[in-house]
Amino acid sequence: MDEIQQLEFKITQVEARLYTWKRKVRILEIDSNIDERETDKMLDEISELKKRIEKLKKK
């Protein structure tokens, strides 16, 4: 698997983690501040991975 495919796979994994997290938030009624912090971390990770993919595509 080339590096772009690996990064795309990692994005898919983080998106799945985000979906699972949101389900836990709803079911367990997790505090909104904790939810926001964790969600932001996962979204930032996805954003960074997408930036890396764009850099690789430009090469």
Helical residues, percent: over 70%
Query: Using only CA atoms, what is the Rg?
Result: 14 Å
Q: In DSSP terms, counting alpha (H) and pi (I) runs of 4 or more, how many helices?
A: 2
Overall, the morphology is elongated
Strand content: under 5%
Oligomer: single chain
Largest sheet: none
Alpha-carbon distance between the two ends = 17 Å
Question: How does this model look, in words?
Answer:
The protein starts with a helix and ends with a helix. It has helices at 3-28, 32-58. 90% of the residues lie in helices and 0% in strands. Helix 1 runs antiparallel to helix 2. It is elongated, with a radius of gyration of 14 Å. The longest helix has 27 residues, at 32-58. The chain contains 2 helices and no strands. The mean pLDDT is 95. The protein is an all-alpha fold.
